[in-house]
Specification:
CATH class: Alpha Beta
Order of helices and strands: HEEHEEEEHHHEHEHHEEEH
Helix content: 25-40%
CATH topology: Beta-lactamase
Number of strands: 11
Strand content: 15-25%
Oligomer: single chain
Largest sheet: 5 strands, antiparallel
CATH architecture: 3-Layer(aba) Sandwich
Strand order of the largest sheet: 2-1-11-10-9
Number of domains: 1
Low-confidence stretches: none
Distance between the termini: 14 Å
Number of helices: 9
Radius of gyration: 18 Å
Mean pLDDT: 97
């Protein structure tokens, strides 16, 4: 922990939060872990959790198909807004407006390609209020989901999703332990996150054969990564790295910082 603190101290003017919970020995690392931040796309994990909860409750099947649409309602006044393809890291859904896609595939695109459009479609399906209620039912602190992505009217009124690194790691630990929805559902969620296509942070500097199930997030000067690392011959650990203050036009600085912290943690816990 001292090594991480010294490393973080070198980033003047940046906020860097670290939260780690190891299942092998119970070792925990918390540095600035209770700072509340805009979660960016890490908020897509609790969306997935509620999707799986409702599927397990037979409200729908993950293989049911729903219409791809790009019209959503602001929590401020119910006015409609849509997402821009240029602001989304996943673009294949936009030419398919009006067509149908399975809930399972929309969930996959939301996690592995961080599709904003898939996220809002799924949030309207399961309801934002229900996502937030499930988080609270699990006893997860300081993880709040209140609005859809790009609800700019709400953003301007500071009506935003807010997460802490500690709460996010608690959420990941519960998935790791098979305690979110069910063991089978938790394992499926882990399997989805193992397909993550953006791997510049937590997995970047640890051995290539180590499995990492994770979800990245970035917006403005916020760059985050949260996940589960599976060292060989040991129980996994849950980890969240949240940062604020790195220049948005040079995201490599944030990725490199998180990758170095992840490497230090891996070497300490493996």
């Amino acid at each position: 922990m001292e090594l991480i603190e010294r490393f973080i101290a070198g980033f003047e003017g940046k906020t860097i939060s670290v939260a780690v919970q190891g299942l092998e020995t119970g070792k925990e690392i918390f540095i600035n872990a209770d700072v509340m931040m805009h979660p960016a796309s890490t908020m897509k994990v609790p969306v997935m959790m509620e999707v799986f909860r409702q599927a397990e409750a037979d409200i729908f099947s993950l293989d049911d198909k729903i219409v791809i649409n790009n019209s959503f309602k602001s929590i401020v006044d119910g006015s409609e807004f849509s997402l821009s393809v240029v602001d989304d890291s996943e673009t294949t859904l936009y030419p398919r407006i009006g067509e149908s896609e399975s809930i399972r595939e929309l969930n996959r695109l939301m996690i592995v390609r961080s599709s904003n459009l898939a996220t809002n479609i799924l949030m309207e399906l399961v309801s934002t209020a229900r996502i937030n209620t499930f988080i609270k039912e699990l006893g997860i602190a300081d993880v709040n989901v209140i609005r859809l992505i790009e609800d700019n009217k709400a953003y301007r009124l500071n009506m935003n999703n807010t997460f802490s690194a500690r709460g996010t790691t608690q959420m990941m630990r519960l998935i790791t332990e098979g305690k979110v929805v069910s063991k089978n559902a938790s394992d499926e969620m882990i399997n989805v996150m193992l397909g993550q296509e953006f791997n510049e942070s937590i997995p970047a500097l640890i051995p290539a054969d180590v499995k990492v199930a994770h979800k990245t997030g970035w917006t403005g000067q916020h760059f985050h990564d949260t996940g589960i690392v599976f060292p060989p011959n040991r129980k996994p650990y849950a980890i969240s790295l949240f940062t604020h203050g790195f220049p948005e036009d040079d995201e490599n600085q944030a990725h490199n910082c998180m990758a170095q912290i992840s490497k230090i943690i891996y070497e300490e816990l493996s």
